[in-house]
Amino acid sequence: MPGRKAREVLTMLVLASPRPLSVETISTQLWEDPPPAATKTIQGHLSRLRSVLAAARPSVGSIDGTTSGYAFAARSGEVDVAVIDDLRAAARLAGLAGDHRRAAELLDEAVALWRGEPELPATIRGDLERAALAEQRLDLSEDRLAAMIYSGRSREVIAELDRLVAVHPLRERLWALLIEALYRAGRQADALAQCRRVRSQLRREIGVDPGSELRRIEHQVVTQSLPEATVSPVDSGEGSTVRFDGPHYAVAGEAHVAYGIIADVASGTAAVRDLLLINPTFIPIDSYLEQPDVARAMRLLARDRRVLVYDRRGVGLSDPATPQDAPSIAEWAADAVAVLDAVGATTVDVLANADTSMIAVTLAADHPTRVRAIGLVNGYPRFTRAHDYPYGQPTAEIAGLLNAIRSTAPPPGVDVLAWRLPAVAPDPGFRAWWDAVGRRGASPRSAAVIHEVILRADVRNRLAEVSTPVLLICRTGCASYDPGHSRYLASRLPTATFREHADPNDAWFVGDVDWVVEELNAFLRPVNDVTCNSA
After folding, report:
1. Does 28 share its domain with 114?
2. What single DSSP character describes residue 483?
């Protein structure tokens, strides 16, 4: 394919597929300062690319025009980045089932597909894309090395980990893997020496102590209490045939929003009640059924209904967030509307949790005819305290905590999993899955942007506009949640029903999930008896 700019356009389209890219998006990636004839030039590149692809034998794909831009379309297995994603997902499932040897084999295949660097523009946006891909490649290498350690091949990975920590001296996960590999290879003294080395390096380079993962590994090495590298197998459970259909893409303005449908295909109901799940955290939608606890929660939620799930922009498979193009609560609600339109859902019930409660409130206020009823678990109208809002924690304190969570070297005492989900924090399998999907769910830059949006958001002025029935579920005893938030919402939402339950876990899919789903079902039943969507 002659012509560097044309090849760069093709690379951008392939990396984005199956999402389309608008001409404007291509232009801002291709040039720092697009020329006056940018649109005409890009269309010329696209025309040449289409001709080359049409003449290719065997066929490798095509560029299709859509209402929101141009998309690269190819058969399954033709695009390396998509195949790598599939292999990583299969490896995660194998690891969760305790088959680390198979996980390592799958990740070996994924690493072998990563040949060279993609040809991207020498622009700020091109550099950002290059950096994101480099991060994904390093994540993939770490996952592969971890699988090799857990499958009993610790000695094989020590040399490679030594090389990687020299190249990435502030990458704490690499140090943790090196220390664990040395310990499992019978080299406890060397493992302790590396603990001292990384502590010294972090203090010297950036003035911080090791984070929670490194401290935990160090403690386990010192006390010789490192657990066996096995986890509970994934349980599809209870004869359920719950399936994820996706990812698909909806268009909200210029943003491409990934969505999917989770349903129990064995139910066989002709009329399906739709529930829109606006999940908290950075877990991508294609990972919900990978982890046993989360899969079980989704199974309970999907009984006799279709659960619509989406990655709000900035998270998972949707368009990333940048400081220059930060999303808003209103845009996240618009993402939900785009998904409803894409699946043909005229009205839905909504389940939201933590920060996504603000999205649900905004959705109900802006689109009252689309929302039948809302369930909010540990909801709030704003996250932090204000002079007229005494709930939550001070903004500076929370901002410092979120910054520490995103840091490569969080200060002592910061363990977001123990803070939010103490029921699963001791489970190494859940922790490994949580860390892996969190890295896929948002880059550090996107996570920082999203956290900033949440810290700034305040929907108290929208509460009086919500006419939809609302169930408020308040989990008491949760370190990351102030029950005052729910009580405030109960006093301000005109149609609120308040339920309180002792549970120290913030995310709805961990802890006493049965109670949450039973309360939600009981609350929704009278509403759904009046109307329901057809399948």
Report:
1. no
2. T
Residue 233 within a domain? no
Tell me the CB-side half-sphere exposure of residue 475, using CA atoms within 13 A.
25
By C-alpha distance, which of 329, 336, 334 is closest to 277?
336
- Residue ranges making up the domain that contains 189: 80-222
Q: 296 near 510, Cβ under 8 Å?
A: no
Nearest to 357 by CA among 463, 216, 262, 219: 463
Q: What pLDDT, on the 0 to 100 scale, is given for residue 408?
A: 44
**Based on the domain organization, do 411 and 488 belong to the same domain?**
yes
Q: Provide the b/e sequence for 42-61 (b: ≥16 CB within 10 Å).
A: beebbebbeebbeeeeeeeb
Does residue 466 sit within a domain? yes
CATH number of the domain residue 23 falls in: 1.10.10.10
Write the CATH number for 136: 1.25.40.10
State how many domains the chain has.
3
Calculate helix-pair angle for 212-222, 172-184, nearest 10 degrees: 20
In a domain, 199, yes or no: yes
Please check whether residue 136 is in contact with residue 82, taking contact to mean a CB–CB distance below 8 angstroms. Answer: no
pLDDT tens, 358-407?
Answer: 999 999 999 999 999 999 999 999 998 889 999 988 877 776 666 655 54
234: DSSP letter: P
Q: How many CB atoms lie within 10 A of CB 330?
A: 17
The span from the CA of 157 to the CA of 187, in Å, is 13
Give the angle 433-439-442 at the CA atoms, nearest 5°. 130
Measured CA to CA, the distance from residue 405 to residue 173 in angstroms comes to 14
Residues 6+ apart with CB under 8 A from 62: 50, 53, 54, 72, 73, 74
Q: 292: closest CA among 250, 231, 379?
A: 231
Cα–Cα distance for residue pair 103/114, rounded to 1 Å: 17
Predicted TM-score (pTM) of the model is 0.70
